[in-house]
């Protein structure tokens, strides 16, 4: 064991997309992190290929939005096909969603991981230590968390103000805090095949879900010549060429290069607790989502965005410790909703193997023909956050708990995205010039108060406020509406609920320079 123990603000276990994004988000708020990763290189079994516009906004907040745009491919949405590949329903997604990005984008996960790690290694507040094995996590009486790990030089320990467990489905951190899985009753084995080919593949530039009881399948185009097929494993194995032949030209006899082929067990699970003291679970350590609506990785990145601004506010600005309680209370019900939605889509697609499978598929086809249903289902899949300490929802819902849209704006002659103007803290948006109490509130929270008429957008924000019958909204750092000034009123409705959580109530951490982190190093040795 090393004789000296390093003290760092946050240790993140796991350098997948969720862990690295969390590190970048914390770094942008002045919180130093050390990321510990068992593998020397990128994760060996990446799976995600799709993301939505909300998560692209998160990547923007992490500082890699432009880099991701260069590797992403907009997709048209989702089609449900019958066993003969006839279209049963089509759920279109737009090229410009409310968050300012295409509603669905396809990408290759190793490329995402690479650009995230490159950003991590450029940031002086981040350190990545690869090829290490975490052997223990546990608090002491002072509230700090001890992390022990082993590398080629022996065993070491660090003391952290917080630990984020982003170490996947077999999480050591989940075991350390005593959390167990709640089974949401879905488990199937699937064959996942990534292919590169120059063939003129039949593709509508979206995702195909084949609702075939004999061989359900998923197909999507990932890149210029990259494609992904997923087939549920059955009693017999069929040659790859036979499996993918419905998408290939009948006369094509060229190469179909298998980039990667592996078998996954798709499960639906959620941890019964996501926190113990200052130890938190994120991503697959906290929840497992079947891939049928493309929300597995998205859910993990939402975890990172939700938690990091709260943790930074506690560590750097002395906000109330109870602010951290809202991470699980907000994210766990949201994740459960998305898991159940994925399970429902999975059952609709695969149909199961029982006697009622044909009836379920027939009912699905009938439902999909209801006028307007496909258009409605093609909109944002994610529900608003439910009412809580940081979401002041009225009886009729309204804007609270939803995300503020992100149009392009023009400020001082410069065209940019809204979030780049608002910064990383709270913000107040008003339909009229802000009155003194709103300016004072925004100043107290460390953010601006901006009339939307000064932002030079296309009218999106003013129309959004009118539709929500609001004269002003208070945006959290993750761009969720926390509270609303109703039209004709003069103050926010729930100040007494959230003010004590987000204002400074105790001494924050000492300045960063009192810590003495080891020099930045990459995973290469």
> What kind of sheet is the major sheet?
8 strands, mixed
Q: Helix amount, in percent?
A: 25-40%
* Helical/strand content category: alpha+beta
- Strand tally is 25
Q: What's the overall average pLDDT, rounded?
A: 88
Q: Can you tell me about this structure?
A:
The protein is an alpha+beta fold and 525 residues long. The chain contains 14 helices and 25 strands. The strands form five sheets. Strands 1, 2, 8, 9, 10, 11, 17 and 18 form an eight-stranded mixed β-sheet that branches. Strands 6-5-13-14-15-12-16-19 form an eight-stranded mixed β-sheet, sandwiched between helices. Strands 23-22-24-25 form a four-stranded mixed β-sheet. A hairpin with a 5-residue loop joins strand 5 (77-81) and strand 6. Helix 1 packs parallel to helix 7. The longest helix is centred in the middle third of the chain and has 26 residues, at 325-350. It starts with 5 loop residues before the first strand and ends in a 23-residue tail after the last helix. Residues 510-525 have low confidence and may be disordered.
Keywords:
disordered C terminus; single chain; 525 residues
Summarize this structure briefly.
It contains 14 helices and 25 strands. With 525 residues, it is α+β, with helices and mostly antiparallel strands.
Topology:
Elements: E1 6-13, H1 17-27, E2 33-37, E3 50-52, H2 53-61, H3 65-71, E4 73-74, E5 77-81, E6 87-92, E7 104-106, H4 109-122, E8 126-130, E9 133-139, E10 145-151, E11 154-165, H5 172-176, E12 181-196, E13 207-210, E14 217-221, E15 226-232, H6 240-244, E16 257-271, E17 275-276, E18 279-281, E19 287-288, H7 296-317, H8 325-350, H9 357-368, H10 373-377, E20 408-411, E21 414-417, H11 418-422, E22 427-430, H12 436-445, E23 449-451, H13 460-467, E24 470-475, E25 481-486, H14 495-502
Parallel strand pairs: 1-2, 1-11, 2-8, 5-13, 11-18, 22-23
Antiparallel strand pairs: 3-7, 4-7, 5-6, 9-10, 10-11, 12-15, 12-16, 13-14, 14-15, 16-19, 17-18, 20-21, 22-24, 24-25
Helix pairs in contact: 1-4, 1-7, 7-8
